[in-house]
Amino acid sequence: MDILAFDIESLPCVATSFQLFKTNIPHTNIIENQSIISVSWQWVGQSKCYSTSIADDKKRFEKNIFDDKHPVTEFHRVLNTDKPFVLLAHNGDSFDIKKLNTAFLKHSLKPVNERQTIDTLKSARRYFRFDSNKLDFLGRYLELGEKMDTGGMQLWLDITQAKYPIVGKQPDLELAYKAMRKMVSYNKQDVKLLIDVYLKLMPFINNHPNYAVYNSDQIVCTKCGSSDFSLSGWRYMKSHKYRRYFCRICNSRFDPPVKQRQYYDDKSKTI
């Protein structure tokens, strides 16, 4: 089973308002919608991290920084395949995947195959009680690293100023290109940290996609795909029980898939 970790970065929407404080802005005041400016992705178990951004298409970038067709189309090609794999993201189910689908629809791209997902935000909330479930905090708490410091909202403003400069300033394309290079680095670091956090949490994720389903001809750990596992007692249900196993590679305890329990039990006789 292959797992594709990914993360998107987006620009904020731009809207008109008569005042700055205590105001509700209707949708009719939006003059620029949120757009995807970069996507980074990496296959778990591999070292190379890929990325695509609006700055890769200079013509579109210099004409309109809110034109996200290039990164959206490029990542659509990655997802639009019959190859079986699982998607990994932090808050991906609620944000990244929905934002991508919205962009696919906008650019008249076909829906991609629906895939199983691993959402580390959901896992952190469901199986643990961290003081914060933000990716940066999880990385720090687990001593795995941290997100790259962007300097705050200014990085995004350095990009938007190419079309909407702040009062008293002129558009600066060079500044926008520089900010995009930093944004892509930030995006890639998020993906690398995501993978490290995922691997740390994985043994506790009981609803993890089942490796055995993707490798039906093999008897493997249902979480990491290793064949190096041992017996680990029984799981007791109301009317029956069945064996549990311990993976020596990822330290997960797992139940065999229903259709393969007999195969696992037969193998357990040789352990």
Commentary on this structure:
By secondary structure, the protein is an alpha+beta fold. The chain has two domains: 2-203, Nucleotidyltransferase, domain 5 (2-Layer Sandwich); 210-268, no CATH class. The chain contains nine helices and ten strands. The chain has helices at 58-63, 69-79, 92-106, 120-127, 135-141, 154-160, 173-201, 211-214, 261-268; strands spanning 2-11, 14-15, 30-32, 35-43, 50-53, 85-89, 117-119, 229-236, 241-247, 253-254. The strands form three sheets. Strands 5-4-1-6-7 form a five-stranded mixed β-sheet, with helices on both faces. The chain has a three-stranded antiparallel β-sheet with strand order 8-9-10, with helices on one face.
Q: How do the helices and strands line up, and which of them pair or pack?
A:
Elements: E1 2-11, E2 14-15, E3 30-32, E4 35-43, E5 50-53, H1 58-63, H2 69-79, E6 85-89, H3 92-106, E7 117-119, H4 120-127, H5 135-141, H6 154-160, H7 173-201, H8 211-214, E8 229-236, E9 241-247, E10 253-254, H9 261-268
Parallel strand pairs: 1-6, 6-7
Antiparallel strand pairs: 1-4, 2-3, 4-5, 8-9, 9-10
Helix pairs in contact: 5-7, 6-7
Briefly characterize the structure.
The chain is an alpha+beta fold.
CATH architecture of the largest domain: 2-Layer Sandwich
Determine the CATH superfamily of the largest domain: Ribonuclease H-like superfamily/Ribonuclease H
Q: Approximately what portion of the residues adopt beta-strand conformation? A: 15-25%
Tell me the helix content. 25-40%
CATH class group of the largest domain: Alpha Beta
